[in-house]
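Re: that chain you flagged

S.,

Sorry for the slow reply, it's been a week of failed gels. I finally had a moment to sit down with the sequence you sent. For the record, here it is as I used it:
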Amino acid sequence: MSGHSKWAGIKHKKAIIDAKRGKVFTRIGRELTIAAKQGGNPESNARLRKAIEDAKASNMPTDNIKKAIQRGTGELPGVTYEEFVYEGYGPGGVAVMAEITTDNKNRTHSEIKKIFSSHGGNLGDTGCVGWMFQPKGYIAVEKSKVKEDELMNIAIDAGADDVKSDDESVYEIFTAPSDFEKVKKALLDKKIVIETAENTMIPSTYIKLEGNDARKMIELADELEENDDVKNVYSNFEID
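Prediction finished late last night. Pasting the structure tokens below so you have them in one place:
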């Protein structure tokens, strides 16, 4: 799954840039509010628990976290957000999915459509590329932090589907979404440092891009990531 590793790396670098621009707080605040609508107790709400972890990791002020949760539980007035997914194609026929959280669907649709068309892509109908992706839990652990046999035994025993070592720097653990938290906890209980942990979408096939198509696809992905209404972007491109 080296393609996912490269994409995860791109997302990680973009997260750092976005944090400097203040975008991360906006996105996490929305996620806290939406997650809290399903219940304000993180012990029984895995989505809220993950959002709180992300907020703390991004050094979001505690008061901001509290207020975002209270807007979700109805204790404070707040904006109503919609969640949906845009599907489309990038340069070279690359499949692209963008998870959206917005308070203005018409505005967001116009912005996302323009981003696709500006970089050699186009929006498609719902379901046009979604069939290429499978929901998975994804955990990355630096190879320098643990031996492969030890990691594999812990992860598989906890319910992981697979452990791969194709990437040069990290082991990659894949789980069913329902087993993600259990596998993550098993690793943390063994004091194994986790580099990345997220529920994501893994493509069944990858498209290798070169030259101008590669440049345009990176620009498309970058601009989608920079949009405040875009929560996550998934794609199936590979670039050397």
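What I noticed first: The chain is about 45% helix and 25% strand.

Talk soon,
D.
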